[in-house]
Structure formats: C-alpha cells, structure tokens
Amino acid sequence: MSLDVHAQIDRGNFELDVSLDVAAGEVLAVLGPNGSGKSTLLRAIAGLLALDGGRIALDGELLDDPTANIFVQPEQRSVGMVFQDYLLFPHLDAVENVAFGLRARGTSKAVARAGAEEWLERFGLRELRSSRPGELSGGQAQRVALARALISEPRVLLLDEPLAALDAGARTDVRRDLRRYLANFGGARVLVTHDPIDAYALADRVAVVEHGRVVQVGTLAAVTAHPRSRFVADMLGVNLVSGIVTGQVLETADGAHIVVTDAQPGPSFAAIRPQAITIARDPSSSSARNSWPCVVGDIDRLGERVRVTLHGQLPMIAEVTVGAVELLGLRQGESVVASVKATDIRTYPV
Fold first, then answer.
1. Coil, helix or strand at residue 222
2. How would you write the pLDDT of the chain (350 residues) with one tens digit per residue?
3. Cα gap 36→55, rounded to integer Å
4. What share of the chain is helix, strand, coil (3-state, %, to 5)?
5. Fewest Cβ atoms nearer than 10 Å: which of 174, 205, 211, 227?
6. Residue 297 buriedness (CB in 10 A; 0-12 / 13-18 / 19+)
C-alpha cells in the first residue's frame, strides 16, 4: 500500500507544488513554518481542497486528477484526519463525535454508536463517553478526535499539528500515547508539525516544506546533518538523542553519558543545539560538565557559520563560526573534543 502525491494548488498569492510518497506502516513528518503549505497539503489529500494540477493516488487508485476529471469526495476516500484544533462538535458528546466518523459515510446510527463505544473503550475513554468537548482535557479531546478518524478503518491517517493545542506539561504524555497509537496503525501516516521533537519521536522520515515546495526529504538525522538552506539549518538545528536518566545523567544505548539538569528519571530525550557545542583540541580547555572525544566528519559552510559533523560515541552536529574553524585548522578525520554545558541541554521524558 502506498500514497503517492503530486499536489499543485494555485491560490493567487500562494502556490503549492509538492510531491511525496508514503509507504504502508511509515510515518512521514511534514515540517515547515507557518504559511509554508503544510496544512494545505493535508487538506488536499483528505479531499477538502481540489487540486489545480498533479494527482493523488492511493494504491494506484486515483483520488484526484484534474486532467482526467477525477475527484473522489472526502467521505469516499479511505482517509482519516485529525485537525489541529480537533474540530469536535461542541454540542455532541464523545460517543456522538466519534460516531460521526461513520455516520458521514452513511452508516446507520445504531451501528455507528456501537462502533464509537468500542473505540472509546480502546482509547481508555469509556467513562467520558457522555462528556462534551468543553469538559475534556486537551489530551482527552485529541484521543476522541483520533478515534473519530480511525473508526472508519482508513488506509491513510493525516494529523495536522496534533500536539500544538496542548500546553507543555501535557505534550510529553500525549506524544508518548500518540506514538503508541500510531504504531498500531498499519496504513500510511502523514504528520504535519513545526517541532523537530515531534518528528524525532514519531516519524520515520521528514519532508521539509518551504514556500509551497519540498526543499529536503530524508531521515531527521540526514536532513539535520546536511541542510540545503539556512532555513532548514535553523529549523532542524538540534541534536536529539535518547536514553535513560538516572540522577542527573542521561545514558544512551551506546553508553554515552550526558550530564543534564532538571531531568525526570527514566527514559528521556535530550536536545542539544549545535550552537551550544564548542570544539577544542585540548580536553582541559573547557569548564563545561560535558566533554566527548570526537572525530571531525563533514564541514559545511552556510554563510558566516560552519556546521561540523562530529563522529564518536555521541554523534553530533556543531555549528561554529568561520573564524573558529580557521583558528583550529579543522580538517576531516582529525580528533577533537566537543563540549556543552549541562544548562544548555533540554530534556523531555519519553
């Protein structure tokens, strides 16, 4: 099963021209700033916007092809969508909101309600079946919206900024739950986000969209290591690692130790900005609590900044000035020491 998209949409002052493919069981994260066309792309896949050019096909079946005069209505597409603000009907309780996913496709009220009860049970929301959206927390509302999208057993699941409406405290728990739900969905999944943390935690590949065009596609590690524009470097300019926190130390699966602050014990992500990493020849030249021996890999100049790939037990990307590179005389294959202050590392429970 595969989703193949070439979406061309002309809105006068904005043009979208994006080509993507997503395989069954794959999560593709579409990253980009506000106004880049991410949500427009999702709405086109869902059938909420008609293409002006290009085509959208699911398992070879055309869903939208203007040249062939083909347009499959949203309710006839095997596509489920979770909107950024969830768009639950405020006058309906949780059961009726979830049942709407089937009712919109012509299912009888009794069958739709029975299916909704089952999905609420799966998502641990049985006790909230009679609650209306205004009585739900952000995480509960998201689960109701996800159940509504999945109740029709779609082959494609679209998620538009699913964590953006949540406060920072709830986002970690909901991200963990969402990762579990996505793992149990066998179809193609497309996640729109502006947060590389979400992409790292949830996606297999990322596609970066800028000004209505795809500027880069690949794994987050590959895209971060070799950004093709200043915009991509700024947006994805973060080293993300995972491990187990004990005390104030995070240990990765490869045995690297990272001293952190204000971290909760247990599985965690650590985010290190490339700009926070210093590179030196002498291990004693830094007072930072974190220092790791590394070998210099690629050296890529972007304007007045240089991104340096560092190989070792803790692979990283550092971003330094051109002057620093010249002063150190950095060359590929050379041994250096990378350092970062514990206070410059952000941690997020898994």
1. helix
2. 799 999 999 988 899 999 999 999 999 999 988 889 999 999 999 999 999 999 999 999 999 999 999 999 998 999 999 888 888 999 999 999 999 988 888 889 999 999 999 999 988 888 999 999 999 988 888 889 989 998 988 999 999 988 877 776 677 777 888 888 888 888 999 999 888 778 888 899 999 999 999 998 998 878 876 666 667 767 767 787 889 999 899 999 999 999 998 888 998 888 888 999 999 988 777 778 899 999 999 898 877 889 899 999 999 999 999 999 999 999 999 999 999 999 999 887 77
3. 20
4. 30, 35, 35
5. 211
6. middle
* Domains of the chain and CATH, by start: 2-235 (3.40.50.300), 239-349 (2.40.50.100)
294 forms beta bridges with 336
DSSP 82-96: E-TT----TTS-HHH
Edge-to-edge strand ranges of the sheet holding 266-272: 257-259, 249-252, 239-246, 266-272, 345-349
Report the predicted TM-score, pTM, of the whole model to 2 decimal places. 0.72
